[in-house]
Amino acid sequence: MRVFLCLILIGLFSCGKIVKQEKIEMNWRRFDIDLPKGIEIYEGINYEIPLRSWAAVIDLNNPKIKIKILSSSDFDRRETPQQYLNNSINSRLILNGGFFINNQNPSKHVGLLKVAGFLEEGASPSVYRDGLRYFINRGAFGIMKNGSVDISWCSTKNDSLFIWDKPINNRPGHPFDSLSFKESEYWNPYYALHAGPVLINKGKIDVTVEEEVFFNTPVAGVQPRSAIGFTKNNKVVMMVVDGRQQISRGVYLEELAILMEQFECIEALNLDGGGSSAIVADGRLINKPSGRSSQREIRSAIGVFYHN
């Protein structure tokens, strides 16, 4: 019986370490859905690994399209992606956002969260891992007031945001003992959130797991995933990869970066994953978060809006 189960679940969870893929063929195709011009969804499947993924490509060259970061206004500060969609006028697509502490009421966003110019949560200046304190400047996604987008390593100081062109050079067991703002620059996005790690930087895959101190956490393993990135021709890519199911095992961060690179992203950032990974469009859930048709309530989300 055990051998039989291993054959069914090979490459998934119970039969040894999952092999990290260096090349992934997804056979992307347009997903049949009713969305305005400039908002397209692609579905990709690889039956051998196996993987199933969806990528929304948003053309910011279309002046009718805007992207915003959303924060729950419910009493527990959590809403499902479908609720975000229903409660946001002119929203056409919702992707889950940053990490949050789910066992608090109200829930608390992990790291930076800035919505419509208001700083709801500052960056976490440091984290403890294996008894050591690591100062951090983790990856953040920002939207400027003119609608342009950016991804960079970010922290806050006195309610102001600052970014760096590289993360602190942390390594497991060898933390940096301070966060210097001398090499940073002031950053003033209208919307921003922390997640991480960064997946692609300046057009090259560069997954900064150790620098952002995500090592020895579930974030570094094979998981259902969400990510956001952008291309040099002003298109935003919003992706989910299903996991924890027979048709899709989930991905390592490096594999997620490969998938984002297939859409020509020059910058990309990992978002909250696991059961939070969900994309809602055209009034319905597109993927199956962790194999379920239900949606987890989340603290923040990224919305695509279309204004006629």
Q: How can the largest sheet be summarized?
A: 8 strands, antiparallel
Low-pLDDT sequence parts: 1-15
What is the percentage of strand-forming residues? 35-45%
Strand order of the largest sheet: 1-2-3-20-19-21-17-18
Distance linking N and C termini: 58 Å
Label this structure with key terms:
single chain; 308 residues; mainly beta; 7-stranded antiparallel β-sheet; disordered N terminus
Notes on the protein architecture:
By secondary structure, this protein is mainly beta. It has a domain at 26-115 and 197-306. It has three helices and 24 strands. Strands 1-2-3-20-19-21-17-18 form an eight-stranded antiparallel beta sheet, covered by helices on one side. Mean pLDDT is 93; it is low at 1-15.
List the helices and strands and how they pair.
Layout: H1 2-8, E1 29-30, E2 39-46, E3 51-59, E4 65-71, H2 81-87, E5 91-96, E6 100-101, E7 108-109, E8 113-115, E9 118-121, E10 126-129, E11 132-135, E12 139-143, E13 149-157, E14 160-164, E15 185-187, E16 191-194, E17 198-201, E18 204-205, E19 225-231, E20 235-241, H3 253-261, E21 265-270, E22 279-281, E23 284-285, E24 300-306
Antiparallel strand pairs: 1-2, 2-3, 3-20, 4-24, 5-22, 5-24, 6-7, 8-9, 8-16, 10-11, 12-13, 12-16, 13-14, 14-15, 17-18, 17-21, 19-20, 19-21, 22-23
